[in-house]
Amino acid sequence: MEVPTKSALKKVLKKGFITVNGVLATTATLLSGDEEIALYIPKKTQTHKKLVFPLTVLFEDRHLAAIHKPAGVLVSGNTFKTIAAALPQNLKPSSLPDATTPQPAHRLDYATTGVLLVGKTGSAIRALNQLFEDKAIQKTYYAITIGTMPPSGTITTAVDDKPAQSVYEVAESVASERFGHLNLVRLHPKTGRRHQLRKHLLSIGNPILGDATYSLENMVLKGKGLYLHAHSLAFTHPFTQEEVLIQDELPQKFTRIFSS
To answer: Which residue intervals define the domain Pseudouridine synthase RsuA/RluA-like in the entry (predicted)?
Structure first.
């Protein structure tokens, strides 16, 4: 009688198995008659842990939605707790014929907070992807940066050897004993490169407060997270043709520094 391999044994133990005369049977087992055949069915394993993750919904209709993405959570990926995994429990199912599992239409960094746009139907997901590709969605971010900087400007430093452009305006500045100056900066990325705003601000010598990756020596604020917030998205709704403006107010850690 053929002896199964160790990997094959693991598979059958999960699904159940058959023995012939007390020996594990395989597809190569031959029967001649009068054998003792036994079927073993494993007990049900513990059900998968259910994700309970309430999200703040900023906008929702039959086609799409927008939620507040908190810091310290991946938008999607092979981990248990992601924004994508939590969307079905936080959004109403679409009543449209091509309704599907809600999917994020873009990405925000793990440490970034703010508005995240979501498609609820197949056609909405495709339409939102096209809007982002066509740069037809106006994105506004706020960041707190370190050091003195001009009141406004355009940064065109290449990101990963690709053209990139970010426009900024300093909304307010305060003196800081440790950092010299801290600035509340309004940002308008014109391209969508990975970590674009973080890299651009570092390139002009004004890294984002709390950024441990793109920072200056001895200028990292630990334990407070990244001070970068996706504040608003403005676009023409691809189905109703209405002008949509979705805003997410600044986190408290911003307003503690800049109360106005």
So the answer is: 63-202
